[in-house]
């Protein structure tokens, strides 16, 4: 294992700056003395776009390639037309660096508010495909803005793309105590993509007899997310369904203030990128109100990815302990939460 | 208003037969003496397909056109490959009869179990587009079954199709006390379809200054469904997002045993079709365990559509009263629930 980490940091928009600062604080606190951490900040996001019109120039994309990993805060601002930064920056990174595993763990921590009655025991991980589906940018609009407009969106799914994420999900399921994998799709309507997913899933399943499997349509899956979330262990699903399900998962496990994610390229060909699931929350930006926990947990995923398993666990334990002692009534600032976690690790 | 109803009945598969029988029982009980009800049953679904290979032959499609409305139970069986009956029968009807309004009300009735803590006050209606989006069957598979397979699904959205459903939703919102309409889409990623939806929405909104509007991405919408469902009044959304959101809505309002729907063609050019949101539930079929309430509430939507508003309200009130007095502990059979509702109306 290399004893240095060369990290690219993209704070981005809104609360991005604040939460990333806390993520770095905890990262610095948890790393052993002998690990040299280098960080380089990239000025990308809404302000940059307003100033220069750039979302992600080629030179910066090239430079980003040379880091060991990327920590990203949040992207998006109401002053920028919807889609410009999402497609021109965030998704461009996920696609350019072939982040085919979008890893999103969901866990209901002790002492955390959930909108669900009866506090089910939730601990699952969604393996969301990250480079295909309706996210490919295929599609277009004909006769735009006229009463005869036709707008299309094309979901592209390849055996290559589906098999690699399904295999990854089986590996993750096999490594967990419950060893259960659920495929979520909508193969009764989206029959072409759905059958490719289902057939690939069934084929790979034969190689993992120790993993129990099931299949749910995405609509039915949302029902179980609120009525029986404890039934899930690992879920593998397409890019769009994964987007929807992981926001719902975050909501039932105490909110997107706690939801971490990793955009991972397991081959190591490109740097993986870690980011909280939440957005830039411009309404509370700069006020010290943002909960940096999701970013701190994303740093744990980053460390695990780079081989620092013990340090990742220390962060996760610190978050558990912090939440367990968190007093529901007291509101702490972004900085105070970061400090508390840095002290614990 | 015509004082006769010529109803096509498609019981379909699994619990379809049982719940439709209760729907008809309540329909018979609620209708004034002078309204002549004629019903004709169509044998369509899994058994028919196994026997003849037919899903919906042209002759039956033609015959169905001549009815005033259609009552459908449920379609689907594990013995039939996924997609065959959904696409060949259910969606074929929705598309052939141009059911562009898929109306799905969600209400948390008194004394009904919800998985949400704190029992929020839920009363909204989803206006789901029914004839476009990723449901059009456009798409295909190249090199099927090989490692080089590419499978696509095309979401088709037209100004024509989007505007008519958006207008309908504004009309419905304007007629409700809170007068609030939320557009749900994912226009930061699905930019072509998303911008068509958003631009159409904004254009029509200008004609309804009395309706307050907002926009949510579909992922964020799922969060509010569980954390703040009381914020919604009317929601308008695309076919696939509507499918997902209405199952989630059913779950938070006490389960799909209570979720009704109408596949409506408001022009009257073709018969509209009413069905519970739930599926055929083959695991409990034939055991008298199915809750027919969703079908009975679908009959109320049917009556409203045909102009029998007073009768529709009587059914809805009967369901409210029945649920209010329902004893959580006692399990009633499908038939008993139907009887109780028939007596009340
Ligand atoms: C911002 C948006 C493009 C993004 C997505 O849809 O993937 C976000 O919702 C997420 O889940 O990371
Ligand atoms: C059975 C299936 C084709 C259908 C749909 O996806 O529309 C169902 O889920 C529904 O919501 O009515």
Automatic annotation (TrEMBL), chains A, B:
The keyword Cytoplasm applies. Keywords: Amino-acid biosynthesis, Branched-chain amino acid biosynthesis, Cytoplasm, Leucine biosynthesis, Magnesium, Manganese, Metal-binding, NAD, Oxidoreductase. GO terms for cellular component: cytoplasm. Its main location: cytoplasm. Binds 1 Mg(2+) or Mn(2+) ion per subunit. InterPro entries: ICDH/IPMDH (IPR050501), IsoCit/isopropylmalate_DH_CS (IPR019818), IsoPropMal-DH-like_dom (IPR024084), LeuB_actb (IPR023698). GO terms for biological process: L-leucine biosynthetic process. PANTHER family: D-MALATE DEHYDROGENASE [DECARBOXYLATING]. Catalyzes the oxidation of 3-carboxy-2-hydroxy-4-methylpentanoate (3-isopropylmalate) to 3-carboxy-4-methyl-2-oxopentanoate. The product decarboxylates to 4-methyl-2 oxopentanoate. This is 3-isopropylmalate dehydrogenase. The gene is leuB.
């Amino acid at each position: 294992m290399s004893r240095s980490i060369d990290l690219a940091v993209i704070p981005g928009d809104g609360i991005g700056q604040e939460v990333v600062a806390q993520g770095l604080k905890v990262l610095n606190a948890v790393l052993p003395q002998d690990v040299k951490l280098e960080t380089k900040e990239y000025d990308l996001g809404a302000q940059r776009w307003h100033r220069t019109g750039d979302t992600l120039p080629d030179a910066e994309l090239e430079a980003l390639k040379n880091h060991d990993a990327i920590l990203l805060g949040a992207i998006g601002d109401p002053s920028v037309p919807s889609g410009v930064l999402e497609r021109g920056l965030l998704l461009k990174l996920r696609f350019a660096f072939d982040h085919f595993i979008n890893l999103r763990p969901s866990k209901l921590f002790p002492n955390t508010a959930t909108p669900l009655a009866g506090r089910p025991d939730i601990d699952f991980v969604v393996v969301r495909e990250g480079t295909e589906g309706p996210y490919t940018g295929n599609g277009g609009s004909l006769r735009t803005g006229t009463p005869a407009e036709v707008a299309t969106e094309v979901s592209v799914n390849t055996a290559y793309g589906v098999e690699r994420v399904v295999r990854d999900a089986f590996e993750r399921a096999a490594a967990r105590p419950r060893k259960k994998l659920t495929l979520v799709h909508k193969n009764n309507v989206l029959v072409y993509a759905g059958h490719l997913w289902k057939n690939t899933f069934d084929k790979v399943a034969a190689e993992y007899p120790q993993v129990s499997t099931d299949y749910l349509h995405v609509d039915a899956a949302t029902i179980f997310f609120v009525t029986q979330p404890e039934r899930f262990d690992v879920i593998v699903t397409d890019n769009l369904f994964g987007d929807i399900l992981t926001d719902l998962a975050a909501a039932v496990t105490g909110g997107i203030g706690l939801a971490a994610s990793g955009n991972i390229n397991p081959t190591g060909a490109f740097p993986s990128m870690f980011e909280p699931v939440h957005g830039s929350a411009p309404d509370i930006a700069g006020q010290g109100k943002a909960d940096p926990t999701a970013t701190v947990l994303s740093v744990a995923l980053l460390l695990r990815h780079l081989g620092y398993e013990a340090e990742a666990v220390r962060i996760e334990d610190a978050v558990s302990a912090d939440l367990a002692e968190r007093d529901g009534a007291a509101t702490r600032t972004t900085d105070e939460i970061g400090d508390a976690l840095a002290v614990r690790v």
